[in-house]
Amino acid sequence: MKKFLRENSLSLVFIFLTIATLAGQIIVGWHEFNNELIDYRQPALTLPAYLTSGHCIEAVFENWESEFLQMGLYVILTVSLYQKGSSESKSLSEPEEVDREPSPMRKGAPWPVRRGGWVLKLYQNSLSIAYFLLFGLSFWLHALGGVKQYNAEQLLKGKSEQLTFWQFLGTSEFWFQSLQNWQSEFLSVLSIVVLSIYLRQKGSPESKPVDAPHAETGE
After folding, report:
1. CA proximity to 54, closest of 145, 116, 130
2. Residue 163 contacts by C-beta under 8 Å, 6 or more apart in sequence?
3. What is the CB neighbour count within 10 angstroms for residue 15?
4. Number of neighbours of residue 208 by Cβ within 10 angstroms
5. For residue range 26-50, what is the model confidence (pLDDT) as tens digits?
6. Beta strands of the chain (E only): which ranges?
C-alpha cells in the first residue's frame, strides 16, 4: 500500500481535490439555485433533481470545457513552438527524446508501438486526440445545460420564449461563458511558460534547476 501511494501520490491528491471541490461546488450551487427558486416562489429542488438541472450541468462543464481545450492546445503547440529560457519548451538546439521515432524493439514498448501501422499513427497522437474529444464532449454538455438553464430562467421570469440547442449556441450568453473561461486558461499557460524563465521551484519537474541560467531552455 505504501508503495502504491508513493507511486501514485500526485494523481491521488488531484483526484481528491477534484472530487472535494466538485462536491463543494454542487452543494453551494444547489443552495444558490434553491434561493433563486424561492425568490420566484417556486418549490426548492432536491439534491438528486439539482444534479440533472441546467444550473448544475452548465456550471460544471463550462469549466471542464476550457480546461480540456487548454491542455489539448498546449500539447499540440509545444510540438513545434518554442520559448527561449522556459522550462515548458523543448530545447532550441538539442534533440529531444519525445521527437525520436518509436521503436517496437524498445523494452516495455506499448502494444500500439509493437503493432505499427495506423494503430501506431493513432497512438502517437492519442494524447491530443483524447483532450480534444473531452473538450468536444464538455462543450456539448455545457451548451446542453446552458439551454436548459436559459429556458428555465425564462419560465421563472414569466416569459414564453424558449430556445433550441442550436439557437442557444448562437447567443452571446453562451459565448460569454465560454470565452471568459478560455482566456483565463490561456493566461495560466502563458504564466507558467514565461515565469519559468526567471523563477524556480526546487524539486519540481516544472522548473529548471535553481542554478540554471535564464537563457537555458527546457527542464
Report:
1. 145
2. 147, 150, 151, 171
3. 11
4. 23
5. 999 999 999 999 999 999 999 999 9
6. none
